[in-house]
Amino acid sequence: NAGVTQTPKFQVLKTGQSMTLQCAQDMNHEYMSWYRQDPGMGLRLIHYSVGAGITDQGEVPNGYNVSRSTTEDFPLRLLSAAPSQTSVYFCASSYVGESFPTYNEQFFGPGTRLTVL
Amino acid sequence: AQSVTQPDIHITVSEGASLELRCNYSYGATPYLFWYVQSPGQGLQLLLKYFSGDTLVQGIKGFEAEFKRSQSSFNLRKPSVHWSDAAEYFCAVGHMDSNYQLIWGAGTKLIIKP
């Protein structure tokens, strides 16, 4: 199993450009999420999904869109990149089961380092 | 505002010495508590979690954590660290007020002296 994969690993954008960060998992996990990690701030939740066709906003959703058309994929779209979106982005997935999703171990991808100039 | 605090940004420990990483939270009721570890250039991995029951929980890689309700703390410990433990450690909290989405501490970077 590949686990959680993210592409690209690195990306440089100019202000105003758009792009999509890809995330895929092969563990048949219902729950998927996107976080951003900034120095001194830990992880902050951007968007999450509890299954195909279901998404919800996290703590910092502005400037980002998501969709979940399949169980495996959960892309994150930056609509118009801004320097404030310079960060490391992590995708994670977990099994839901009978408890709330984040109680179960979240499996993280290796991250995408994004720089917006 | 509810928060998760890891007071130490960096901690330096000699190989073979004991380790304690601190985590405090400000939620009123007992939340769900987690410790994750991030090795350099990697994603995060779950070390252990606490939901209820015995307040001393065992995790992977020889780590343990103790929940202390009176101190709103969930400190991570290891009796003897190895050079491979050098990493960043994150405490996270899930609570009904956040719809159980995890709120993360800022992390503590562990440096191992040979």
Describe the structure.
The complex is a heterodimer of chains A (117) and B (114). Chain A is mainly β. Chain A is built from no helices and 11 strands. Chain A has strands at residues 4-7, 10-13, 19-25, 31-38, 42-51, 54-57, 64-66, 76-78, 87-94, 107-108, 112-116. In chain A, the strands form 2 sheets. In chain A, strands 2, 4, 5, 6, 9, 10 and 11 form a 7-stranded mixed beta sheet that branches. A 4-stranded antiparallel beta sheet of chain A has the order 1-3-8-7, with no helix packed on it. Chain A is globular, with a radius of gyration of 13 Å. Chain B is mainly β. Helix content of chain B is 0%, strand content 49%. In chain B, the strands form 3 sheets. In chain B, strands 2, 5, 6, 10, 11 and 12 form a 6-stranded mixed beta sheet that branches. A 4-stranded antiparallel beta sheet of chain B has the order 3-9-8-7, with no helix packed on it. A two-stranded antiparallel ribbon of chain B has the order 1-4. In chain B, a hairpin with a 5-residue loop joins strand 5 (32-38) and strand 6 (44-50). Chain B is globular and about 45 Å long. The interface between A and B is medium-sized, with 24 and 22 residues.
